[in-house]
Specification:
- This protein is an alpha/beta fold.
- The chain folds into 2 domains: about 290 residues, 3-Layer(aba) Sandwich (EreA/ChaN-like  fold), CATH 3.40.1660; about 110 residues, Up-down Bundle (de novo design (two linked rop proteins)).
- About 45% of the residues lie in helices and about 15% in strands.
- The strands form 2 sheets. Strands 1, 2, 3, 4, 5, 6, 7, 8 and 11 form a 9-stranded mixed sheet that branches.
- Strand 6 and strand 7 form a beta hairpin.
- Pfam families: Erythro_esteras.
- This is Erythromycin esterase family protein.
Length: about 425
């Protein structure tokens, strides 16, 4: 065993305490509850325990610490349907599974699953009987919904009077020749000068801050129109950039998520507090990983830079188990085995001294946990368990997160059959 590895193992053992579930994580809730932004991660998009414990922590932050909304690594239009459901709108569905039918684009399982349905039903009950301004929302802050967001904007503005609809139609007509093919749009924008940046910026300006003057019953729908326009702008930038620079397209995406968060905070007022759900690679500070060497930033870093002292980041990890993922983009999801973590990795060291669930609060972490980089597993929506080595992100644990939850053995989440149930 290398000296650094031995020192890290000893430090992890000294800092780790048993994790018995969010219901017993008093110190964690107190610390996260002091922040304006509680960032709660996951080491995969297909692990049941990550979703369940994240939801249980969020419930406590909502009930005990007054957090106003959940913002997730999901698309605005689909999440807004779920937002309407949890706020009691039967038109969005009378059970959570109906409200989740909009998550029909791959990877469907990421949000259309039983774990999210259970949390949505809890949130609907929690919101029942509350004044509209006191209800807790559920929003998507990602940018992949270019076409869906354009559709929602046109639908919303068709009910209004004014010139905003014309701006939306011009943006839609600019994108229309590309047949809802993002790659085709990116190529056309980069190599043939057929970009739509001017049109989408003009549309966003038309819709920006309209919620401030909207009548009370229309305020959140006006906000939704603005956030859809922001998603269109972000997606246009993302797909145009992706053709040329992978690292910069990542940065476009994470900067977009932060901008969407800032607009949600403005809408909910100066005392608002947000819970953010996203992969560890987004919520943990990129400067504490090799992402920084590639010129990449992320949500955790950007929020820490602009809201110093008001951000609390919680990472997750597992030693072994099962997970839901696909073997290629757009491929059918399947349950896969997560093999035991590689020797010397963060997860393997935490398992080595005791194969049990653990919590690490890192505010007073020893120097070795602020200097040593340990491999830390990250599983995406595309996964090949047989090629594990490339899934480990070199991580300075106590610089990346404020707290870390280690679940020794985990299981695959339970997807809802969205297409089969609602076709």
């Amino acid at each position: 065993m290398r000296k650094n590895e031995f020192e890290a193992l000893q430090a992890l053992e000294r800092h780790a305490t048993p994790f018995l579930g969010a219901a017993y994580a008093e110190a964690l809730v107190e610390l996260a509850g002091e922040a304006k932004f509680a960032l709660i991660g996951e080491a995969s998009h297909g692990t049941s325990e990550f979703y369940v414990e994240r939801a249980e922590l969020s419930k406590r932050l909502i009930v005990e610490k007054g957090f106003k909304f959940i913002a997730v690594e999901g698309d605005w239009p689909s999440c807004y349907v779920l937002n309407r459901y949890v706020k009691g709108d039967d038109a969005a569905g009378t059970i959570a599974a109906e409200a989740l039918r909009d998550f029909a684009r791959w990877p469907t399982w990421m949000w259309a699953n039983r774990e999210i349905a259970a949390f949505a039903d809890w949130l609907r009950v929690y919101n029942d009987g509350k004044a509209e301004e006191d209800k807790v929302g559920f929003y998507g802050i990602d940018l992949y919904s270019l076409w869906e967001s354009m559709d929602e904007i046109l639908k919303y503005l068709a009910q209004k009077d004014g010139t905003d609809l014309e701006a939306a139609k011009r943006a839609f007509e600019c994108f229309e020749p590309h047949g809802r093919e993002e790659q085709q749009y990116g190529i056309a924008a980069n190599f043939y000068g057929e970009g739509c940046e001017t049109e989408v910026v003009a549309l966003l300006r038309k819709l920006q801050d309209k919620w401030q003057s909207a009548r009370s019953g229309d305020r959140e729908d006006a906000l939704a129109a603005e956030l859809n326009a922001l998603a269109v702008k972000g997606a246009e930038d993302y797909y145009r950039t992706m053709i040329r620079h992978d690292a910069e397209s990542w940065n476009v995406r994470d900067r977009h998520m932060v901008e969407a968060l800032e607009r949600l905070m403005a809408y909910h007022g100066p005392m608002a507090k947000a819970v953010v759900w996203a992969h560890n690679t987004h919520i943990g500070d990129a400067r504490a990983t090799d992402m920084a060497d590639e010129g990449m930033v992320n949500v955790g870093q950007l929020l820490r830079e602009t809201h110093d002292g008001d951000v609390y980041s919680i990472g997750f990890g597992t030693y072994e188990g099962t997970v839901i993922a696909g073997r290629g983009w757009g491929r059918p999801f399947e349950e896969m085995k997560v093999p035991p973590a590689q020797s010397g990795s963060l997860e393997e060291l935490l398992h080595r001294f005791e194969p049990a669930d653990k919590l690490l609060l890192l505010d007073d972490a020893e120097q070795v946990l602020r200097e040593s980089k340990l491999g830390h597993r990250a599983i995406g929506v595309v996964y090949h368990p047989e090629y594990e080595r490339g899934n480990y992100v070199p991580t300075t644990l106590a610089e990346r997160y404020d707290a870390f939850i280690f679940l020794d053995r985990t299981s695959a989440l339970a997807p809802l059959a969205v297409e089969a149930a609602f076709s």
